[in-house]
Amino acid sequence: MTHEETTLETLDWARLERLRDGFLSGAGAAGAYWQSRADLANYDLTFAQRIAWKWDAVLAELKLRGWTPPPGDVLDWGCGSGIAGRCVLRELGTENVSALRVFDRSPLAMEFAADRARTVFPTVAVNSGVPETGRIGLLLLSHVLNELPDAEREALLQLTRRADAVLWVEPGTHADSRALIAMRERLCEEFAVVAPCTHQAACGLLTAGNERHWCHNFAAPPAGLMADGNWVRFGQRMGIDLRSLPYSFLALERKGLRKGEENFSGWSRVIGAPRVYKGFAKLFSCEANGVRDLTLQKRDASAVFKRLRDEESVLLVRCAVAGEKLVGVEATVP
Fold it and tell me: Which end of the chain is more exposed for a tag (fewer CB within 10 A), N or C?
């Protein structure tokens, strides 16, 4: 079965189960995921879509903040089936993209990702590999940290320092989030943090007493997903909760590259999932002064409370704080 013939109705369950077992065992660190284009085709329609929904959440927030990448090449490093690069070009546009580059330790994956990108974006030049020298442009990194030993993480860090901007999405686990925070701290001298932080200070999660916390949020699956029999069947057979999409991310831009303002200075970023109770909600908040748990009373901000109660996204808030209580909420950004 070729990748062109693969659909959600004709998935190869044996391939998907082998891929799932490889993900869980860490076989990808040895480059053992992809044995054929059919592996990539089945992955691209299923597991990769769950990653795409996380990228969509990140890109929606970046649009909300008014950020667009600087012009130049886009490099999708560790591309797999190429889902990250396609998401970014689809959501942020191709007008300022001189070329899309894909790189993976698997030549099969690079070939698949390049072919898919050329099909979806026929006017964009698509190349494979990493330039040996020079600046990179926009570097995309997706779900790579947990597969890299320390030496390869250091090599990736050096590659990152060649970029004009970086969009980095990882699974929303404690370990992956903490690893991404470590990368943030090592890159903050050369790069300004665009998101998720609303400040350029050291990460408040690194202060004593916050070891059990981590920076993550939850992406929303497409509307109507759980009414789609093909997706329900996939979730059941793979043992996956399709509604749970935790992610961590980091968006960086090289300092001095462009003139810009910190539009969300003074705002607080909500971490994790707000806890909503009768008449009040608890939000774990990150700002320049650090992280802390804050209480929002329904009577102080009924519209915001309603969004939280209805499980609608609230990522950024601007308000006054009295002790551990949010008061005078001025605005929210979904």
Answer: C
